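Review this today:
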Amino acid sequence: MAIIDRPTDYFRINLYSGNNNTQNIVWDETDTNMKPDLLWIKSRTGNTVFEHVLGDIIRGNQKYLVPNGNAAQVDNGNVINTFNTNGFSVGGATQVSEGGRTYVAWGWKASNTTASNTGGTINSTVSVNTTAGFSVVGYTGTGNAATVAHGLGVKPDMIFSKPYSTSGDWNIYHDSFSAQQRIKLNSTSGVSSNSSIFSSLPTATLVSIGNGGDINGTNTSHVFYCFNSVEGYSKFGSYIGNANNNADAPFIYTGFKPAFFLVKNTGETSAWEMYDNRRLGFNPNNYQLRANATDAESATSDYVDFLSNGFKIRHQSSGINENGDTFIYMAFAKNPFVTSTDNNSIPATAG
């Protein structure tokens, strides 16, 4: 697969301030447009903190899910309103636009369209971008073990799964897991086995699901976010912690300078930690948010350095570097370490 020279064609980050009103948010990049098919927003600051909100192309405008909880989808145009040609619009709700509060938004592009896929025993509706290794998949559960087509054409490295017409947990598959293992996004718990969720390992075409209500409830609507690693753009992997915060601390090679990093200790109770290159923008204090919690960002973090070709762990905590524990991560690029062309791409720089 070719290197993605310009990651911002498919993933962007925006920082903005609330104003208690509807507002259009335009990505800062001006060289190309990018309409998001998956949008994740979190308030960063304030005396009262609010939940994460997440919208996608399958469920459509004016609907959102809460990554830090198990609630069903909420239909409210005052939160995520529209997905626009080069950004998005939000209403004046406190989760997305309260005056005096700052917000971060992460957006991913699939195909900007949807199509039917009949490749599984359950038909699905998909928005797929094989270049970027990303698909959004919707389907209706049957209550019986089944398969669902994801459209990527290669085996997914990470799958986020959520029922949205009813309450239910966020179950995640990661490429480092064995068959039937899962971990929950809306929980601090570690990895566990459950054959009623992911009944076997995914393939290049299908996700095999059990009969559990959180993934295959009868007449229940569900959504998948499926990802595979793409050179110069994204990486889904794992590393072993060693509790060092010096030169011997873990370094993880990605092949790009990271813009976004989500990490979870799979062996014990710990938070899902989130970092990006925009909320502070330079090492060593890449501010931390927690995907499973509503609290504000940590403004004193010294946890991870974003380097030209990967990231270096800078902390000894159980959430990012517990000795002997396995950590899973997903990372997206600011710039590739090397580029395949010179079409306005910018190779990564150090630090």
User: Anything to note?
Assistant: Residues 7-108 form one domain. The chain has three domains: 7-108, 116-227, 234-336. The chain has two helices and 27 strands. The first strand starts at residue 11 and ends at 17.
